[in-house]
Amino acid sequence: MASHNGLSSDQQANAEVILRAKQVTKSVAAPDEPGGRLTILQTASLDVAAGEAVALIGASGAGKSTLLALLAGLDVPTSGEITLAGFELSQLTEDERAAVRAGRVGFVFQSFQLIDGLTALENVALPLELHGVADARERARAALDEVGLSHRLRQFPKVLSGGEQQRVALARAFAGTPAILFADEPTGSLDTTTGERIIELMFALRDRHATTLVLVTHDPALAARCDKSYAISAGVLQPWQ
Amino acid sequence: MAIVSTKNHPRLPHLDPRALWALAWRGLWRELKNGALTTMLLALIVAVASVTAVGFFTDRVDAGMRAQAAEFLAADGRITSPDSLAKPLAQAQTLGLATAQTLQFPTVILAGDHTQLVSLKAVSAGYPLRGSLTIAPSPQALPHAVTQGPAEGTVWLAPRALALLNLAVGDAVQIGQKTFTISAVLLREPDVGNFFAQAAPRAMINLGDIPATGLVTPASRVEHALLLAAPAAERSGLLSALSKKLPADLSIERPENSQPAFKTAFDRAARFLGLAAMVAVLLAGAALLIAAQHYNRVQQDPAALMRAFGAQSATIFKLYTLRLTLLAVLAAIPGIAIGALTQLGLSALLGSLLNFQLPPPSWAPVGFGVGIALVALLGFALPALLRLKDTPPLRVLNRQLAAPPPAAALLFGAGLAAMAVLVWLQARDAALTGYVLGGLGLSLAGFIGVIWLLLQLLQRYPARGIARFGLARLARAPWASATQIAALALGLTAILLLGVVRGDLLGAWQAQIPADAPNFFAINIQPDEVAPIEALFNAQAIHSAGFYAMNRARLTSVNGQAVDANALHGQAKSLTEREFNLSTMPEHLKADNTLIEGQWQPAHTGWSVEQGIAKTLHWQLGDRLTFNVNGAALTAPITSLRKVNWDSMRPNFFVLGSPDLLASSPAQFVTSFYLPEPNLAQQKALLQQFPTLTLFDLSQILGEVRTLIERASQAVQYVFMFTLLAGMVVLLAAFHASEAERLRETAILRVLGASHRQVRLSLWIEFIVLGVLTGLLAALAAGGLGALLAVKLFNLPWQFDARLWVYGLGAGLTLALVLVPLLSRRVLASPPAAALRGG
């Protein structure tokens, strides 16, 4: 079977693993729970090959975003190992995990997470500037052009529609040509039509830049567009379909 | 699938300084444009403006007062000696100092058959170097100021001398071997000097006439004075240079220490002005503390986002530090400009009131303004933002997560440290800095403690009904609420301190020299004259300070060691060389004396010594002093040390002896009394009846000191008024900082179905509780600080002003009255959805 990214099964089998989770568990202190802890994620394991699109599907509160945060190095597991771009994240300090993300990881969030005080262009340029990219502005301009917002460069997020804001977020995510993109419910704040357009755009950009995608969604149709899908239910991760 | 080899640790990237600078600047610019930093900027501008306005103005008032003080010497510096000062004169002229000379001694003038003892002063060209002389063509004519002394061959006489001799301008008098024409009435001279030198009325002639009078010979007892002046910029250096060349027995007297009474007034004025400036600093701190906490909350999302994008915590730290530094510089520019403009208006307003020309301001307040902005922002605001670097990147997915709150010790430790630096920079007074910081530190800790406890109680026992929403807002984040209320209380403390305590302090100061303070001293009263003079005073309703026995004495030994004045230097030498005036210990210590050490025991043989002279001569309690009084050696131990309020204008003595020591020594008596205005008829009656009595007229000195106090009070009132205004603006700015949160929380209430009435009620309850708490705490702190300042710093009596409670509560409730309607209007005018979206 040919996957969405066009890699054959054999090719996928030989592809480099960019992200690996091994027996990952996450629990938090909860005095009311038995043992005083609440387990959000239980012994989750998965491999993501470079260039692959992987969906994490589940209902609200199932633990999808928790797993995404762990995979992206935004949080650390209680036990287990996560390897991102060759670095074992749980062995690293907060700053070292940030250094792993820098330039390698892009994000798209449900609530867009644009900085109100910056224009569309400045929002897109921000991660590049933080990594000391010399031509950050030019690359940000090109990224916004790529998402069809070259006419909205100097607009502030508040005057943009939800769809436009998410397109700015996509431009920001892809401007740095990351190796891997983490998308958390990217259409969660949008109407169906706008949501579909954003998904089309996201997959198009992902194809163009050969970016690995880890997508959190509760939409089975969207999950079906990915190379691989995992379902999370009550903190347990299982291959889906 | 293959997996790449696992690497150990990634290399931590460092952002290029230029990129960091660009990011910081752009962020600052954008946040200034969209208003995120407006509150902090405004608070900072107001703070810098108020501090620099105070700085510029006090700089000018200070310089003006110093110029005024210079008038007391008629110069920037003065050297006095019983010997000729020809050598120092030549040295001063070589250095480029402006000079003038005076010669002073008592002598007799002849007018027909009448003679009159006068204090003759001969002045050279150039006298006075500072200030002016006031003369008139006749005692009744309008006076005018002149900057030159009398011409050769002419004499200016004080009105009292003219009256006593029945002379008029144009008449001739003989002084020594030369005849002079009276050319003017001398009403005022700047360097009135030691009032005891003015036992007799003044006569002033030109120094060039002295040889012709034949009055001064090498053996004459005269006082030579060399007056010195230089432009302000070179003054200190030139006077220091001359000082180094002088022999050990000569020193340069400076205006600041020329008059004890004036010096006390001057010091108090400087301290009052320093206090005014410091309060502005305090207000800045309170506002910035709140504004920075608000900014910290607003910046958590961007910080988390940058962390998620891979920014290092050090990068976040540098970014915000740089942004604040840029903000400080940016705020300092308009702040200084507004400060400069405000002081121009203030000076224009005060010019006529102050009665002295304000010199132009120096550039020092500009540097100080920038320094204030930087230290204040980095000290008060940076600690609140320090933990932004620790914002969890996971916040991008979960907004409940936040950066850990800044450590209280760091937050307030840095604030207090910044305040210490600022207060020290402003006041340059360790005691003032210590008292203000100690007082404020304790107040702040007390405020936070009390509020914290109350909020904890509120959490445990929540209110009911709509009151719960208003109070829950305070109780939900007790740390933030406690900090905010404490900062507000601190601001209100400052305002109360200005509004109420300032008036009380100034009142207490002015009361130090009341309108009916004795203005005449009478000495050489014989024992048998005391009763008739008392009768005369009673008959003429003249209030006297009482009659005190006075014995002339010489100090001969200390602890059995003969006193050798030549082995001493400076003031110690002159004190031991001259005669002491001893008096008898009264049964009870006088009101203007305070016991510092030892016991007040008039029944026990001993001396009671004024603490200042004891320090100068290194005397201690128990030391045995021997005085020669009329040939008798009187030896006794020091049994007590006293502090004397010399401002009281009542007779006081460095050394008092127990009655048994001085009972057998013949004494003369001294008194002081108040005459409503120099009344020559009464003086003449007194003089004619008691020919040995000598009168000293203190009216002029008293008038000068009183004028200085009045002027300084006016200046302080205006400076305080300005600071008060700044404080109100800063308080409003501080409230504005929490407006966004309030809008959002109220919007949630409205979405949940709260009516307009309920929303308003919840705001009223919250602000009334906040106002009452703030007002009561502020009243308490202002009272405590006022007492501390009065007693420890200004040496003034203090009583807690009960009005503080009323004003404190009133001010707290006024905050609610002003802010709740404003907030209600804003909260209820915008749709809840907009507030919830953050719009």
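qc> Confidence is low (pLDDT under 50) at residues 193-198 of chain B.
qc> done
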